[in-house]
Recover the amino acids of this structure.
């Protein structure tokens, strides 16, 4: 394993879905332009939100039924992944390219793709689906069953897609693997959903003694049939430790429903994952370590 990084500079891009595109090349070109811009800022990792790919619906075939949108986007994803793959290497910057539908054993999953400068491409499936992702009359997906922890630059990264970060049981599974940074790409229709995801992301930073970076889409894609509103922002959370500023909030852009440009962009410089790792090892104020409730008993009285 490589020498562990002490700091990572993150860029969180709350993509504005409302900008129409004329094809996949335009979508990739937008990401590359952003990475080129961020390279001069010393960014190590660019994070896009869940369903950033819904922008593709602005050039979907005429007459495409809602029940066919997932399959069509999965076909587009197969075309776009090889186009994205060189970017991480060319800019020496990791890229979480949001999530996109992926074919799997006759069905489809909501899959986040992490591209690393060393050439690796790691997919992470969403593990717990929302009601609209289980609707046979619209977007019908299947949940995944595996959580990956990725080692890169001596750090451990995990991805929890939107609703997944709201699940303490998943956090308990992750805790023994000691992730340093959890990535949370999300899509939330309103302030309530944003508050659930981002509030739980902060809780996961405390539970896991890790940094957590959460970002969601804003606006509505031209041609959308499912997501008429999207409200979100960008936040990086840390454990609530005196040496880390006490409040647990490292950097944020408050939630918005619309944006005049490409979408809010947060650069969180020098996220102190080395200091968090040291706290996790021995020096935290009250953190009990990875806690398992398996031995506990319950009773209703």
């Amino acid at each position: 394993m490589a020498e562990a990084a002490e700091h990572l500079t993150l860029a969180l891009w709350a993509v504005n879905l409302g900008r129409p595109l004329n094809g996949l090349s335009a979508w990739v070109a937008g990401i590359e332009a952003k990475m080129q811009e961020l390279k001069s800022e010393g960014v190590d990792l660019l994070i896009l939100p869940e369903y950033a790919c819904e922008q593709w619906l602005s050039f979907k075939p005429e007459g495409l039924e809602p029940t066919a949108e997932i399959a069509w986007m999965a076909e587009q994803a197969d075309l776009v992944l090889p186009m994205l793959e060189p970017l991480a290497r060319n800019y020496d910057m990791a890229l979480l390219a949001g999530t996109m539908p992926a074919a799997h054993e006759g069905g489809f999953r909501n899959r986040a793709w992490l591209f690393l400068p060393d050439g690796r491409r790691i997919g992470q499936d969403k593990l717990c689906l929302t009601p609209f992702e289980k609707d046979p009359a619209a977007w019908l997906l299947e949940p995944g069953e595996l959580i990956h922890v990725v080692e890169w630059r001596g750090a451990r990264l995990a991805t929890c897609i939107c609703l997944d970060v709201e699940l303490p049981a998943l956090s308990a599974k992750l805790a023994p693997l000691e992730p340093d940074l959890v990535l949370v790409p999300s899509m939330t229709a309103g302030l309530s959903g944003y508050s659930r995801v981002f509030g739980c992301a902060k809780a996961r930073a405390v539970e896991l003694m890790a940094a957590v970076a959460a970002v969601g889409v804003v606006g509505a894609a031209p041609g959308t049939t499912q997501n008429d509103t999207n409200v979100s922002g960008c936040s990086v959370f840390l454990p609530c430790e005196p040496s880390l500023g006490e409040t647990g909030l490292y950097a944020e852009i408050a939630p918005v429903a619309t944006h005049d440009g490409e979408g809010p962009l947060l650069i969180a410089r020098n996220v102190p994952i080395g200091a968090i790792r040291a706290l996790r090892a021995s020096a935290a104020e009250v953190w009990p370590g990875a806690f398992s409730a398996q031995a506990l008993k319950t009773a209703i009285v």
Observations:
- The chain has a mean pLDDT of 96.
- Helices lie at 24-39, 66-91, 168-174, 191-208, 273-283.
- The longest helix spans residues 66-91.
